[in-house]
Amino acid sequence: MGPLHPASAEEIKNAVSSALGDKLQRAVVDLGELTIWVKPADYVASAMILRDAPGCQFEQLLDLCGVDYSEYGSGQYDGLRYCVVSHLLSVSLNQRLRLKVFCADDDFPVLPSLVDVWSSVNWFEREAFDLFGIIFEGHDDLRRILTDYGFIGHPFRKDFPTTGHVEMRYDPEQKRVIYQPVTIEPREITPRIIREDSYAGQQGRASAGKV
After folding, report:
1. How far is CA 27 from CA 7, 22, 23, 79, in A?
2. Residue 110 to residue 82: CA distance in whole angstroms
3. Whether residue 4 has pLDDT greater than 70
4. Residue ranges covered by each domain of the chain
5. What residues form DSSP beta bridges with 36?
6. What is the pTM of this model?
């Protein structure tokens, strides 16, 4: 028996729309891929439906990441700032789905955790917390995973300075690692470009001499 032929994005959209009902805020097919949006209050319930409902059966969560929309569209974006994006796979039906949900509060972004729906989300939610400061309620080990334990801030936020807030160094007098305000001066680096009008001609003559 050959591999299961995947449904089209429109067919997946119809199945997902039927399964979620009024929990579905929006569904868009673009470049052959389906993306759907749900409300934070419906996030966990929608995830369970997407995992279990006939025609959906997204048994695996492949990836989850945060997005900061604060500078989207060159600053013309007007909407909630933080979004969590998940990519789901149905092994049974050979189909994929992108799930988006926005945090309701820009000042304190919070969403329920999906660890009880897909265990693979554990480290992905820790990464989104570490880099974007998104809190996942119900996660039993929500701590930093990429930055240092003493790191201050969330480096993937658009307003996080490129040099950070603090720097770490070893202090020989205290015989330990310490943190201090960054000493790097912000500056713009303009590459030095050298243009020689005769360069192309010189290269041409050199090539001709090797013939």
Report:
1. 16, 12, 11, 18
2. 9
3. no
4. 9-209
5. 27, 99
6. 0.80
Strand partners, 56: none
31: left (phi over 0), alpha (psi -120 to 50) or beta: left
Bridge-based pairing of strands 166-171 and 176-181 is antiparallel
- CA torsion sign for 42, 45, 48, 50 is negative
Query: Comparing C-alpha atoms, which of 24, 28, 31 is closest to residue 50?
Result: 24
Q: Are 164 and 157 in contact (CB under 8 A)?
A: no
Pairing of strands 60-68, 33-38: unpaired
Does residue 106 or residue 196 have the better pLDDT? 106
Q: Is the pLDDT of residue 200 over 60?
A: no
Q: List beta partners, residue 100.
A: 37, 85
Is domain 9-209 annotated with CATH 3.30.43.10? no
State how far the Cα of 170 lies from the Cα of 114, in Å rounded to an integer: 39
Terminus-to-terminus CA distance in the chain, angstroms?
A: 62
State the amino acid at position 122 in one-letter form.
Answer: N
Average pLDDT over residues 97-121: 97
Looking at the DSSP bridge assignments, the partners of residue 70 are none
